[in-house]
Design goal:
With 537 residues, the protein is α/β, with parallel strands linked by helices. It folds into two domains: 287 residues, Rossmann fold (3-Layer(aba) Sandwich); 117 residues, ANL, C-terminal domain (GMP Synthetase, Chain A, domain 3, 2-Layer Sandwich). 29% of the residues lie in helices and 24% in strands. The protein is built from 15 helices and 27 strands. The protein has a nine-stranded mixed β-sheet. A hairpin with a 5-residue loop joins β20 and β21. The N and C termini lie far apart (54 Å). The N terminus is likely disordered.
């Protein structure tokens, strides 16, 4: 398969710092931290809740985490799940797994216990490590594996004895990240250590990242965006990272003024929240070289307040399966190419493929395909999904875009059904499965609608209950409200709160294909025109 020359990434050149090149054979990711500890032992590595750890401290903590895991019987290929908020423990566990050749499985801390149980049943980890604040939740999951509560910072992995032998290599899988699937069940994207190292190279070139940079991490580390866009590349490259447990617009502004980061990542909803904060106009943002965004369509209205303040906003395009950096728009190019997500990242090639299977011409739409060492190895225990997604080494993203004459890529649409709300992926099939188990409605579907705060939110569009009056479409004593409220309550305790539908719209019937499949594009058009549907009041 040929790759159109405008979409080829330039090969890495001699300007790439040696510490950012892919790992040499026989070297695990954790060894990078030890090397920085040898070269710059007193340099700041990770800061968290008022405590700053040097590279020497951090390297010792990673070794302790590897020892803690080894003492728990963890070996090559074993999965280690982590359930907790943002804290350095997540990094130590992941790097401890890389040391041993084990596989780190971060769990989305916002999911409900049944959702976690499905993932754990599928991945079969040997160990579930749980933050003390999630001990009750971890017990509710009732996972079929050993469960251990990790003590709070900073001594969670303190162990006696020598560090265990290194087993990890670039060929060892190291990250099993579950991403929601269109069938309603998540899929586990398996990434090896070489993929993580290649992604770090992509990050280095996207940011001109150096050991003097300071990265502020507020988005979840259970996402590849929070873990891999800046955080892990920063510590692999000798930079400093400040980790916050969760995003808060006011705390973000405090951190920028007091800790003076040079880089951060904010999803569009967070950009909007920061720009809307009363202190945004007066806050000192001068330390920021730029902000990266992505994970959902990025409206220019979300980035303009930062450009107006002299802070450029670049973009990252990719997915869990691409580790995630596949295309990037550098901050020094962002003002001139607004609306674009950039060009292929250093270690990636990108094709835009038409429905006919040909490479798209400039301006022609097609599906984005990505190839490179940062692409997933496979979907965990899902050969069918792997075969569908990977074609001769190319990962089919399912996203639709085009490139202009100069090779700048624009995303026109995305996976048909996926809803991205505040940077979180929501697949309607998962919500529709809950509706299907109920007898409250005979037919219903879930689609996304625009939302000023979250970008978009899920809503239910359902056929009116059978007892509705044909003349008015309303029930006696206005039970539309009661019926809608009952539908919305179905999701309590079954799915994470951020996935819950935010409204119910009634219609006479759902548009379907000849085979009975709901025409979701027509449903979305009905909502946009406000025709054929009526919102429950």
């Amino acid at each position: 398969m040929s790759v159109p020359s405008p979409l080829r990434a330039e090969a890495p050149d001699a300007a790439v710092p040696p510490d950012c090149r892919p790992l040499a054979a026989g070297t695990d990711l954790a060894a990078r931290i030890e090397r920085w500890a040898d070269h710059r032992p007193d340099a700041a590595a990770v800061a968290f809740e008022g405590i700053e750890h040097s590279y020497r401290d951090f390297a010792d903590q990673v070794a302790a985490a590897a020892g803690w895991l080894a003492a728990a019987g963890i070996g090559e290929g074993d999965r280690v799940a982590w359930l907790g908020p943002n804290r350095p423990t997540a990094l130590r566990l992941m790097l401890g797994c890389s040391w041993l050749g084990a596989i780190y499985l971060p769990l989305n801390s916002r999911l409900a216990p049944p959702e976690h149980r499905w993932i754990l049943d599928h991945a079969e980890p040997a160990l579930l490590a749980v933050d003390s604040a999630f001990a009750e939740h971890g017990a509710a999951v009732d996972a079929p594996c050993e469960r251990r509560v990790v003590p709070d910072e900073p001594d969670g992995f303190a162990v006696a004895g020598t560090a265990p032998p290194r087993r990890g290599t670039p060929d060892h899988a190291v990250l099993l990240a579950y991403t929601s699937g269109t069938t309603g069940h998540p899929k586990g994207a398996l990434l090896d250590q070489a993929a993580m190292a290649a992604n770090a190279v992509n990050s280095t070139h996207a940011h001109d990242l150096t050991s003097t940079d300071r990265v502020l991490t507020t988005i979840p580390l259970f996402h590849v965006g929070g873990l891999n866009i800046q955080t892990l590349p920063a510590v692999l490259g000798g930079a400093a990272v400040l980790i916050e447990r969760a995003f808060d617009a006011g705390q973000f502004l405090d951190d920028v003024e007091q800790w003076q980061p040079t880089w951060t990542v904010l999803v569009p909803a967070a950009l909007n929240a920061v720009a809307a904060h009363p202190r945004f106009a007066s806050a000192d943002l001068s330390s920021l070289r730029g902000i990266m965004t992505g994970s959902s369509p990025v409206p220019m209205a979300a980035t303009e307040p930062f450009f107006d303040r002299g802070v450029p906003v670049g973009q990252i395009y990719g997915s869990t399966e691409t580790a995630p950096i596949a295309v990037h728009l550098r901050c020094d190019q962002a003002a001139a190419h607004r609306g674009s997500c950039g060009k292929p990242s250093t270690m990636c090639e990108v094709r835009i493929v038409t429905d006919a299977g040909a490479d798209a011409a400039a301006g022609e739409r097609g599906e984005l395909w990505v190839r490179g060492p940062s692409v997933l190895r496979e979907y965990w225990r899902d050969g069918g999904a792997t075969a569908e997604a990977l074609v001769e080494g190319w990962f089919r993203t399912g996203d639709v875009g085009h490139a202009d004459d100069e090779g700048w890529i624009f995303i026109d649409d995305r996976r048909k059904d996926m809803i991205i709300s505040g940077g979180e992926n929501i697949y309607p099939a998962e919500l529709e499965e809950v509706l299907a188990r109920s007898d409250l409605v005979s037919e219903a579907t879930v689609v996304g609608v625009p939302d000023d705060r979250w970008g978009e939110v899920p809503v239910i569009v359902a056929a009116r209950p059978a007892q509705a009056s044909r003349s008015t479409g309303r029930l006696a004593d206005d039970p539309d409200d009661a019926a809608a409220a009952a539908l919305l309550r179905l999701f309590d305790g079954k799915l994470a709160r951020f996935k819950h539908p935010k409204a119910v719209f009634w219609t006479e019937q759902l548009p379907r294909t000849a085979l009975g499949k709901v025409r979701k594009h027509e449903v979305r058009a009905m909502l946009a025109r406000n025709q054929g549907v009526r919102r429950a009041r």
